[in-house]
């Protein structure tokens, strides 16, 4: 396939790689990995990346004791975190660069944390889990750069003597320009999804500034370097996370688990054999343990804890 592989898929490929390196990997595990790889071209591309990294570093996972990762009862937190850092080597260079930039952010949140800010111009921002921004204001422009993750922005109007400074939000794919609007912006391959809650704003693609578009309240679109995706109706639940809620309406279990994983430290994965199951409901993000328990009660699945930091939703 052409184009970048999403971090979530690279993450899944790394976990599959570790699982198959363990001494208790079964033929069923190998078959499940094959099905995962065959289900989408992006999965296979991520798998090949994992293999290349392993070859480059000389069977890196086994050399660092990856087999112990499957021994959940004896694995220490320190050991798990070490394994997580090792697997970080499998991430694409561009993604690692973004991570490094986030370390120097003006504001950031840890996994599972949300944070509310008010900037010097009165603009209010709420950062979602695992997000980071930098802020730069000057006489002509107010600029906020989303380095990672997702945020809700309530842009304040900033006018002096009839001259207004626009708020420019820079993210993957290009810029969002607004004077007074409320919107949610989330980085997701291959760009950033923008949902407008009130007001209006302009989307400017990085490589095609002449192909931008205006969005108004109730609209959303994907902003990429090459252009703006089809305009659509913004989800009524786009900002639910600001209230600590995840709503599912006939949602694929695989998609639901991927969303929940954004708020949980470590790895939370969904076995491809149950990924197409559907669920509906309203779930609290601040405590994922009861949410996982509810999945096992409502669907033909069980929650497998290899360690506290590596959890999988698998068939019963």
Derived structural class:
alpha+beta
Overall body shape:
elongated
Q: What CATH architecture of the largest domain would you give?
A: Sandwich
Give the number of DSSP strands: 21
Protein name: FecR family protein
Organism: Pseudomonas kuykendallii
GO molecular function: sigma factor antagonist activity
Domain FecR protein: 106-201
Concise overview:
By secondary structure, the chain is α+β, with helices and mostly antiparallel strands.
Task: Outline the secondary-structure elements.
Blueprint: H1 7-21, H2 27-38, H3 41-56, H4 60-63, H5 77-87, H6 93-103, E1 107-108, E2 115-118, E3 124-127, E4 132-137, E5 142-148, E6 150-154, E7 159-160, E8 163-164, E9 167-171, E10 174-178, E11 181-188, E12 191-205, E13 213-216, E14 219-224, E15 227-228, E16 232-233, E17 245-252, H7 253-261, E18 267-270, E19 278-284, H8 288-298, E20 301-307, E21 310-315
Parallel strand pairs: 5-9, 18-21
Antiparallel strand pairs: 1-4, 2-3, 3-6, 4-5, 6-11, 7-8, 9-10, 10-12, 11-12, 12-13, 12-14, 14-15, 14-16, 17-19, 20-21
Domain FecR protein: 106-201
Protein name: FecR family protein
Pfam families: DUF4880 (PF16220), FecR (PF04773)
Task: Please provide a written account of the structure.
The protein has 316 residues and is α+β, with helices and mostly antiparallel strands. It has helices at residues 7-21, 27-38, 41-56, 60-63, 77-87, 93-103, 253-261, 288-298; strands spanning 107-108, 115-118, 124-127, 132-137, 142-148, 150-154, 159-160, 163-164, 167-171, 174-178, 181-188, 191-205, 213-216, 219-224, 227-228, 232-233, 245-252, 267-270, 278-284, 301-307, 310-315. β9 (167-171) and β10 (174-178) form a beta hairpin. Strands 1, 2, 3, 4, 5, 6, 9, 10, 11, 12, 13, 14, 15 and 16 form a 14-stranded mixed β-sheet that branches. Strands 18-21-20 form a three-stranded mixed β-sheet, with helices on both faces. It starts with 6 loop residues before the first helix and ends with a strand. It is built from eight helices and 21 strands. It has three domains: 7-91, no CATH class; 106-233, Jelly Rolls; 244-315, 3-Layer(bab) Sandwich (Phage tail protein beta-alpha-beta fold), CATH 3.55.50. Helix content is 28%, strand content 35%. The longest helix is centred in the first third of the chain and has 16 residues, at 41-56. GO terms for molecular function: sigma factor antagonist activity.
């Amino acid at each position: 396939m052409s184009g970048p592989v999403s971090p979530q898929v690279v993450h899944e490929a790394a976990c599959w790689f570790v699982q198959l390196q363990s001494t208790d990997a079964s033929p069923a595990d190998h078959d499940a990995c094959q099905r995962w790889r065959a289900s989408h071209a992006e999965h296979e591309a991520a798998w090949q990346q994992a293999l290349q990294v392993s070859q480059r570093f000389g069977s890196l996972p086994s050399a660092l004791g990856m087999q112990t990762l499957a021994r959940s009862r004896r694995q220490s937190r320190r050991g798990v975190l070490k394994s997580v850092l090792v697997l970080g080597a499998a991430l694409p260079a561009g993604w690692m660069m973004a991570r490094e930039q986030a370390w120097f952010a003006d504001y950031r949140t840890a996994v599972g944390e949300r944070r509310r800010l008010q900037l010097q111009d009165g603009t209010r921002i709420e950062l979602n889990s695992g997000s980071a921004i930098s802020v730069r204001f000057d006489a002509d422009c107010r600029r906020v750069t989303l380095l990672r993750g997702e945020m809700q922005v309530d842009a304040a109007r900033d006018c002096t003597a009839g001259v207004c400074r626009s708020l420019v939000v820079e993210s993957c794919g290009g810029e969002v320009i607004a004077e007074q609007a409320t919107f949610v912006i989330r980085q997701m391959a291959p760009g950033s999804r923008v949902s407008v809650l009130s007001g209006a704003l302009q989307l400017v693609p990085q490589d095609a500034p002449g192909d931008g578009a205006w969005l108004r309240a109730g609209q959303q679109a994907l902003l990429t370097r090459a252009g703006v995706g089809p305009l659509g109706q913004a989800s009524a639940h786009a900002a639910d996370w600001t209230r600590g809620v995840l709503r599912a309406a006939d949602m694929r279990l695989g998609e639901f688990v991927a969303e929940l994983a954004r708020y949980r430290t470590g790895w939370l994965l969904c076995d491809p054999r149950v990924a197409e199951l559907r669920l509906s409901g309203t779930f609290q993000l601040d405590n994922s343990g009861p949410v996982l328990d509810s999945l096992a009660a409502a669907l033909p699945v069980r929650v497998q804890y290899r360690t506290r930091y590596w959890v999988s939703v698998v068939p019963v």
